[in-house]
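Structure ticket #2291
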Amino acid sequence: MKILFICDGNICRSPAAAAFLKANLNNNNIEVRSAGIYASAGRPMISLMQQVLQEHGLDSEHSSQKISSEHLTWADLIFTMTRPQKFILLSMVPTMADKVFTLQEYIDNPAQDISVPRAETIEAYRACAEFIQGGCQALYKKVHKVGP
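Resolution: structure written out below.
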């Protein structure tokens, strides 16, 4: 299975989601990538999110990339961080409706978006990362049909 995480700039939420999901993987049956709808190629992850991932012992090396048709055809499942991002993707390629979801929608919490941290503080990024991590843990269980 191939999973693609999408956010706006591919410098915070989607690479963090990819890092958290990869941390749960104990086999090679799932591949994970991230990209951004409005990304500029080659930008590093926001330093505060890098710091949070490092606190979790996760790889924080990242170089942003803009979403491409190759990404869209590569992925079996595409997870956006927000409902507006999902609608943008579906307006671009309506035939993808069966594989595009918000992360929270897919794990049965459809009213929640994963927003950009509002404050430029480490606490705000930790809270965002915690929300993403919980979503990725639930996603892992759902994809692997582990537990209730």
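Closing remark: The chain has a mean pLDDT of 92.
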